[in-house]
Amino acid sequence: MARFPLTPEGYEKVMGELRHQKEVVRPGIVTDIEEARAHGDISENSEFEDAKERQSLCEARIKFLEGVVAGAEVIDVMRVEQNGRVVFGTTVRIEDPDSGEERCWRLVGETESDTSAGTISYTSPMGRALIGKEEGDEVIVPTPQGPRKWEIVEVLYLGPGETPDA
Q: Are residues 68 and 81 in the same domain?
């Protein structure tokens, strides 16, 4: 069985989406299929075909989410040893020593990463480069444009809802 490391917030988000798919999306699609069938011949009924396609996608998503929940390994960064090392769930402030550009990333599970929200997967190139390192370490991250060097400025162990000072 696949393992899915998740933060507590990520687990709750997956559970919420699973509930929504099962309790709202799936019943809505069933209603749409029933209505399309009521229109008569389903062999040339585009509404029916559309609803069946959405049903297939919904069932696939439910199956995926159930697999994530079954293999979930919830890791709370507030319960790990805070020894200054980058681990799953930590927030890391990094700086490009050449340009001075700063970024701040929280390392999370693959299913919960969202770069627009400041989270990246621990399996991403950046995540893999950062895991196990500590403040002051330099990391080389492979990019399509070539390797890029970053310095770890700060490792933060933040709880739910906490954000790093900008």
A: no
Q: Which amino acid is at 120?
A: I
The answer to whether position 86 is within a domain reads: yes
| Residue 156: closest CA among 97, 103, 118, 106 | 106
Return the SS3 of 127: helix
CB count within 10 Å of CB 108 equals 27
Q: How far apart are CA 139 and CA 135, in angstroms?
A: 11
Whether residue 166 has pLDDT greater than 70: no
| pLDDT tens digits, one per residue of 62-116 | 999 999 999 999 999 888 888 889 999 999 999 999 999 999 999 999 989 999 9
Q: In this model, does residue 125 exceed pLDDT 80?
A: yes
- The one-letter code for the residue type at 19 is R
The answer to whether 51 and 36 are in contact (CB under 8 A) is yes
- The answer to whether residue 44 sits within a structural domain is yes
Q: Looking at the domain assignment, is residue 127 inside a domain? A: yes
- pTM of this prediction? 0.83
Q: Choose one of 46, 74, 102: the last residue of a domain.
A: 74
Q: Are residues 49 and 98 in the same domain?
A: no
Distance CA 3, CA 53 (A): 29
Range of 23's domain?
4-74
